[in-house]
Design a protein that fits this description.
Blueprint (H helix, E strand, L loop, with lengths): L2 H71 L4 H24 L9 H10 L15 H5 L17 E7 L2 E6 L24 H6 L4 E2 L10 E12 L3 H11 L3 E6 L2 E2 L1 E4 L4 E4 L1 E2 L1 E4 L9 E4 L2 E10 L10 E11 L5 E2 L3 E2 L23 E14 L18 H37 L8 H11 L13 H26 L8 H14 L1 H14 L5 H30 L7 H28 L25 H15 L1 H12 L7 H28 L6 H25 L6 H39 L5
Parallel strand pairs: 12-16
Antiparallel strand pairs: 1-2, 1-3, 1-5, 4-16, 5-6, 5-9, 7-8, 10-11, 12-13, 14-15
Helix pairs in contact: 1-2, 1-3, 2-3, 7-16, 8-16, 9-10, 9-11, 9-12, 9-16, 9-18, 11-12, 11-13, 12-13, 12-18, 14-16, 14-17, 16-17, 16-18, 17-18
Amino acid sequence: IPNSVFSGGYSALSGIRKLQTKQKMMVRSKGVISLCLAVCIALCTHHQCNASASSSAAKLESAEALKEAMTKMKEKKGFRGRKEARKANIEAREKYVELKQAGVDSVSNTKESIAIRAYEMRKKKKKFILKKEKSLSAVLFPGVSPVEYEHGELVPIFAELVESHKTQVPYSYYSRNLPFCPRPNPAHARKAKRKNLGAKLQGARTELSPYDLTVLEDTPCTAICEVPLRADSRQLAYLVKLILRQYRVHLTLDSLPVLVKNPAMNYAARGFPVGFTTPPANGMGPPDMHVYNHLAFTISYLKDPDSDESEGSVRITGFDAHPISIQHEGHVGESVTTCTGSSYPQNNPRTFMTLSDTGTSNIIYSYEIKWVESDVAWSDRWDIYLLGGVNNDAIYLSMINSLMMTSFLAAVVFVIMVRTLRKDLAIYNDLELDLTEEDVQEESGWKLVHGDVFRPPSTSPLLLSVAVGTGAQIGTSVSITLIFAILKIVNPMNKGAMLSAIIFLYVLSGSVGGFVSARLYKVCDATEWKYNAVATAVALPAFLTGMFIILNIFLGIAGAATSVSIFTIIGVFLLWTCVSVPLVFVGSYFGFRAGKLEVSTKTNQIARFIPEKNFARRSIATLALSGIVPYVNMIVEFAVIMNAIWLNHFYYTMGFLFVSILCVTISCIAINIVTCYVQLCGEDHRWWWKSFLNGASAGFFIFLHSIWFLSHRLQLVGMLPVVVYMTYMSMISLCFALYCGSLSFISCFWFTRKIYGALKVD
C-alpha cells in the first residue's frame, strides 16, 4: 500500500478526532449556557414575583391609605377639623394618582378598585349642594333596605328591554320576531312588579328570564333551549338587524342591571350585546354575523354582617355577565358535548356561532353561574353604574353662572322699576327734582300709550287665554313634582313613577289652568266662560294625544315594545275626561265669578298709531333675546337631562334641577319685563301676544338644541327612530314654550299694571 494512502488516512483520522473534541466542547459550553440561562430565568422569575408581590402590597397599602384619608375628609368640625380635612384631601389625591399610575382600574371588585371608585364618586354622593349622604344608594334609593337571601334560595333574573342607542325602537325580550328562548314557567319564582301608568306609557316590560339562579350554588354550563333559524325566516332577518344596529339585552337581578366589564380597558356597560360582526373570510362581501348564545354570569355577594355564619344569609352586590359566542355540538335534550359540567366555553374565532345565510342555523342558548365573595358593601354597589357620568363641578359652575345672570337681570328690572316710578311720582306730585329735558323725553314714550296699553288683543284673545292657562297648569304640576322628588316622596331613578307623578299632578292642576285662563279671558271683555273652559281642557291634551296615537300606530306596526295597548290609552282618556275636565270647569267657574282685574287707565276708542321701530325693538330681536337667556341658564342641566332620556344615563340631582328651573323662571320674568319696557318706550302698545311669544321662544331654542343633539350625539339608523325622537322632543319643546310664555305674559301684565298705576292721568 503506498505511503501516501496511510498519510491521507492518518490526516483524516486526526481531523475526525479534532471535530469530535470540538463537538464535546460545544456540548459542554451549551450545557453551561443552558444552566446559566435557567439560573437567570429563575432569578428573574423570583425577582418578578417579589416585585409583583411588593407591587400588590404597595397597591393595597395605597388603597388603605386612600380609604383612611377619605374618612378624615368627612370630619369637618371646628377650625382644626377643617384643616385636617384639607390635608386629608391632598393625601387622598396623591394616593389616588399613585393607584391610577400603577394601572388599577375602576370597574373590578378588588380593594384597590373599590377605593378608586369611592374617591371618584365622592362628589356624586351629595344630596343637594353641601349636605352629604353616607352612600350613593341612599341618594338614588332613599329608604330602601337590603334584601338578605338564604343559601339555596331561588332568585329570579328578570329580562327587560332589548334596545340600542342607534334606534329609539326597543323590543320585548320575548317578542315573536326575536329568536330567543321561550318564556319559562314562573311557578318557582316571584312574579315581576306591577307596572304603573308611566311605565306602561314608556313601554317598560319586566319579565322572568329563562335563567335559573340558586343562592351560593355555582351552575356549570347548562343548555336551556335550541332555536332553529332558516335562511329565509323573519326571525333571522330581525336578528341580523339587531346585530347591525348594536342592540343590547338588559337583565336585572335584585334591582341591579347586568354589567359587561373589561378591566383592561377600564370599561363597564349595562346590558350585553346580541351579537357582533367580523370581516368576511374572503375579504369581500357583507360581514359575517355572530350571535352571543352563552352567558357566563358572575354574582358578587357579601355576607350579612348582622346574621350568623351558619345561617348563610348574603346580600347581592354585583351582577356581571361575560357574553360568549360558541357553536355548540349536539342537541338540547340529548347531549351537548360543548356544554357539560366540566367544560367552560370561551370566545374562539374557530368556534364562533355564525349565522348562515344559505342553510339552517341551530342556535343553542346556554349559561353558567359563578358566585364570588366581594368586599363591595351593599350601600356602594351602585357606584360602578355612575362611573363616567356628568362631572358635578361643571354643574356647580353652571349653577353659579345661572345665579349670577339671574341676579343681574333682577337688578336691571329693579333699577327700571325704581327709576321709572320715582320720576313719575316726582313729576305728577310737582316735586322739585333736577330732571333734565332729555330724561323727560326718554320716559315720555311709554306714557303716551296709556290709553291703548290695556286694549285687548284683536287676534284671538281666546287662544291667548287658553295658552296662558295651560302654561300655568304645566308649571304647577312640574313644580310640585320637583318638590316631591326633593322631599323623597317620588324617586327620580324610577322614570315610570316620575312620569306618572307628572301626569297625575297635571290632571289635578286643571283647576289652576281653568282659573288663570278664565281670569284673563274676562279681562278681554269676553263672557263665554264655558267655551273657554272646554278649550282650556281640550287643547293641549288633545294635540299631544293625537301625536302620541299616530306615533303609537307606527310603533305597533314595527313591533316595538314602546307601543301602548288600547287599554292604557282608554285609561288615560278616562283620567282626562273624568278628572281633568271637571277640575278645569271648576277653576273656570270661580275665575269668572271673581271680579274683573281693574286697570288704572281707560282705553281710547281709536288705537294710537305705532311709529317705525329700530332694530332693538323689532320682533325678531326681542324674540331671540327673550328666548336665548332662559335657554342659556339651563343649557348644562338640559344636556344632562337629554343624556338621561335618550342615552339611558342615570339622573338623580333633583336639587340642581330645581335651582335651574328657579333660575329659568326668574330670568324669563326679568328679561321679558325688560323687553316689554323697551317695546312700550317705542310707543308700541301691542304687547299682549308679543310678551307671550317672547317667552315662548325659549321652547324654540330647546327644539334647536334637540336637533343638534340628534346630529352630534345620537347615531340613529332608519326613519322611524328619527320620527320617534322628533315627536317626543316636539312635545317637550311645546310644553316648555307654553310654560315660559305663560310666565312672560303674567309678569308683563303685572309690570304694566304697576307702572301705569303710578300715573295720574286725567
